[in-house]
Automatic annotation (TrEMBL):
Source organism, top-level taxon: Eukaryota
Protein name: Radical SAM core domain-containing protein
One Pfam match: Radical_SAM
GO BP term (any one): defense response to virus
The keyword 4Fe-4S appears for this protein: yes
Radical SAM core domain boundaries: 66-315
Cofactor: [4Fe-4S] cluster
Location of the region described as Disordered in the Swiss-Prot/TrEMBL record: 41-63
Cellular component annotations (GO), alphabetically ordered: endoplasmic reticulum; mitochondrion
Keyword S-adenosyl-L-methionine included in the entry's annotation: yes
GO molecular function (one): 4 iron, 4 sulfur cluster binding
Organism: Pygocentrus nattereri
Keywords linked to the UniProt accession: 4Fe-4S, Antiviral defense, Iron, Iron-sulfur, Metal-binding, S-adenosyl-L-methionine
């Protein structure tokens, strides 16, 4: 191992240790503060708030001050045509809000300061064959004038006609792809019948180029693809962002340490490496619809994967605490989901109590959102891409 590689390894280990110590100290200070308030009879919650938190199975609001929902992930449907074994938002209901109600919620979010909306699922193109999704995308860009509108999809249900009708209103389209081997995708569950996931991937990528939509790839590194070399395929697809991460499982579904790297590629393209959490009741635990434990890889296996892809440089680690607390997630009822305890604790719906009240129960850390670089160039008008 060369000297520069050894120095890089030492720097990485030190950053991970510092990050982990910081997380543990923060948790200890939070617990101590709550214990002292309990001893002195003090509480930041009114009796009404305490009753609501108990009923909803929550631990109380995370913030007293007003939090701005700059970037929101709206999982408006849980239905999906794929059966990925590590899915963390499974088809536990078939509920989808009427579109006028969904638009009302989106307007409330805009009024509260939302700048970016990401539509996800489930598979967002499944409901009404993408028309519902398209109309929400159009509404957010044309009526609400949001700087950024994005979608995460498996790509299997997208038609060129959708781009022709709605492509102008979409900034970023992320396609989930865990392998460039069809058999591996089938083993993972990222397939439907005899359809080729990879054919769809390349087809959608070309449409994104034709209709000027920024293209992104999400990958979960697991036992089935951890030894795969993806450099050539990623280079040919040329996404603006490539998010990859391992599924990690520890006792009680609480993740202790993770690696989250932001990878800067040449020509200004950005790739991210992050870690996905197992969620009790979704992909782990007795009442879950998935058993994600079999997809677990070790830290060393994940590091080996990164080493094989180290031609993509500038690695920056990010703790799981940052990931868990710095994303705002809305479910199909427009309830914020607090994932801090390794499960999804829902708030009241923003349609019933408003954004300011509901976001108190989201577990969202706005400072951490900004610290991890959650605000980036997310409007395609500002990306200056060579279409």
């Amino acid at each position: 191992m060369q000297l520069c590689d050894k120095l890089d390894l030492v720097r990485l280990l030190l950053q991970l240790c510092i990050s982990n110590v910081h997380v543990r100290l923060s948790a200890l200070l939070t617990w101590t503060s709550e214990w002292l308030r309990g001893r002195t009879g003090q509480s930041k919650l009114t009796p009404k708030d305490q009753s609501r938190a108990t009923t909803a199975g929550q631990r109380g609001p995370h913030r007293v001050q007003v939090t701005t929902p700059r970037s929101v992930n709206y999982h408006f449907t849980r239905q999906c045509n794929y059966k990925c074994g590590f899915c963390f938002h499974t088809a536990k209901t078939s509920f989808v809000l009427p579109i006028e109600e969904a638009k009302r919620g989106l307007q409330l979010l805009k009024q509260a300061g939302m700048e970016k909306i990401n539509f996800s699922g489930g598979e967002p193109f499944l409901h009404q064959r993408g028309v519902f999704l398209g109309e929400m995308v159009r509404y957010c860009k044309q009526e609400l004038e949001l700087p950024s509108v994005s979608i995460v999809s498996n790509g299997s249900m997208i038609k060129e006609s959708w781009f022709q009708q709605y492509g102008d209103y979409l900034d970023i389209l992320a396609i989930s792809c865990d392998s460039f081997d069809e058999e591996t995708n089938r083993a993972i569950g990222r397939t439907q019948g005899r359809k080729s996931h990879l054919d769809n991937l390349y087809k959608v990528r070309n449409w994104c180029r034709m209709y000027k939509v920024a293209f992104k790839i999400n990958s979960v590194i697991n036992t089935f693809n951890v030894h795969e070399d993806m450099i050539e395929h990623i280079a040919s697809l040329n996404p603006v962002r490539w998010k990859v991460g391992p599924q990690v499982f520890l006792e009680l579904c609480v993740v202790d340490v993770d690696i989250d790297f932001v990878l800067m590629w040449f020509a200004g393209l950005t790739f991210q490496v992050f870690q996905c959490l197992l969620i009790e009741g979704e992909n782990a635990g007795g009442n879950s619809l998935r058993e994600a434990e079999k997809f677990v890889i070790s830290d060393q296996e994940f590091q080996d994967f990164l080493d094989r892809h180290r031609s993509i440089e500038c690695l920056v680690p990010e703790s799981n605490q940052k990931m868990r607390d710095s994303y705002l997630i809305l479910d199909e009822y427009m309830r914020f989901l607090d994932c801090r305890a390794g499960r999804k604790d829902p708030s009241k719906s923003i349609l019933d109590v408003g954004v300011e009240e509901a976001i108190k129960f989201s577990g969202f850390d706005e400072k951490m959102f900004l610290k991890r670089g959650g605000k980036y160039i997310w409007s395609k008008a500002d990306m200056k891409l060579d279409w």
